[in-house]
Design a protein that fits this description.
The protein is mostly beta strands. About 5% of the residues lie in helices and about 45% in strands.
Length: about 350
């Protein structure tokens, strides 16, 4: 067999190496056929926290509970500040959101109106029978509050930055912590105590239930024009708007919460059975369920179906507060026991 000269072999090897070096690398910059892992990764969007609705109500669990004593009057939740505020007299308790510990106390008025506390950004508003208190919940200091008419306050609805008040002189007053004149709405007939109030999130409508059983509503842009929704034989202890203002729930018909498709005229959408009474109603984010606190305790009640999820039946519940995003809530019962609930 004929041998190739050594010089020929070396020359061929050099040519092969040179050709290989001339080929662009698969991962070289500008190579259109580069691998996917070499491309820059898009930033991952933060996961959205779950909110209450048809798909999450079965996952609601109690995270913690704490007894503060007294008789429960009001409760509020702020995820932004990581606090639950609860009132059952004085002092008011500020509880750490995650575990209920790190307790702080505020020397607020003793006559807090039922449902009359709420977080307004970095402020805590406390509605008392004789006025409003504004607190800094971090510094634990009291700040200047708006001045009010001297009549006793009987009911409140808080939708930051707005506060709706029912007062004993027969006038509903809607004011803003951002300033400006209050809107005044005089209820029909002689002065009479408002039992419960509801305000839409944009403060465009207010609904009122008072002690003789009537439920009325107003457009706040037309305070002189009243609209009667319904008249019951008994008092209505709770009224509430859905988050978009399209639905109104009121508890007045014996053993039922009535949900109305809000408008003029309003039309009845559903009648959802409840216990002897209900003190607080909130709609879930998608308006498929109501969070209700009352004589049956704490529950989630489906509006268009039969499901009722009993969360806590140990004591009657006086107030329920949702966080800013409607993803968790707290309740306070008549024995001063505070519970915090979240989606697991």
């Amino acid at each position: 067999m004929r041998q190739r000269p050594l010089r020929s072999i070396v020359t061929t090897a050099v040519l092969v190496l040179a050709c290989g070096a001339a080929q662009p690398s698969a991962s070289a910059p500008g190579n259109k056929k580069g691998t996917a892992r070499d491309a820059p990764k898009a930033p991952r969007a933060p996961a959205k926290a779950p909110v209450l609705g048809a798909g999450t109500v079965e996952r609601v669990k109690r995270a913690w509970e704490i007894a503060i004593g007294g008789k429960g009057r009001a409760v509020a939740v702020s995820k932004k500040l990581g606090r639950v505020a609860a009132a059952s007299g004085s002092p008011l308790y500020l509880l750490e959101l995650r575990r209920g510990g790190d307790v702080k106390k505020l020397a607020v008025c003793a006559d807090v109106v039922r449902g009359g506390i709420g977080f307004f950004g970095k402020k805590l508003v406390v509605v008392c029978e004789n006025g409003i208190e504004v607190w800094d919940p971090k510094a634990l200091t009291r700040e200047q509050a708006p001045e009010l008419a001297p009549a006793r306050i009987t009911a409140a609805a808080l939708q930051p930055p707005h506060i709706a008040l029912g007062q004993h002189d027969g006038v509903i007053r809607i004011l803003s912590l951002e300033g400006g004149p209050a809107t005044e709405i005089r209820v029909p007939g002689p002065p009479i105590d408002v039992k419960s109030l509801a305000l839409t999130r944009d403060a465009s409508h207010v609904a009122v239930a008072w002690v003789q059983g009537s439920v009325w509503w107003w457009s706040t842009a037309e305070p002189e024009t009243s609209h009667q929704l319904v008249r019951h034989e008994a008092e209505s202890d709770a009224v509430a708007f859905s988050r978009d203002g399209s639905l109104l729930a009121e508890e007045g018909k014996e053993s039922f919460t009535t949900v109305w498709a809000f408008g003029d005229p309003a039309t009845e959408k559903a009648a959802v059975r409840n216990g002897q009474w209900v003190k607080r109603i909130h709609f879930t984010d998608d308006s498929s369920f109501m969070v209700r606190g009352g004589s049956d305790g704490l529950e989630l009640a489906e509006i268009a179906g039969p499901r009722r999820i009993a969360l806590d039946t140990r004591d009657p519940v006086e107030d329920v507060g949702l966080d800013e995003s409607s993803g968790s809530f707290a309740a306070i019962d008549r024995s001063g026991r505070v519970t915090y609930w979240s989606i697991k």
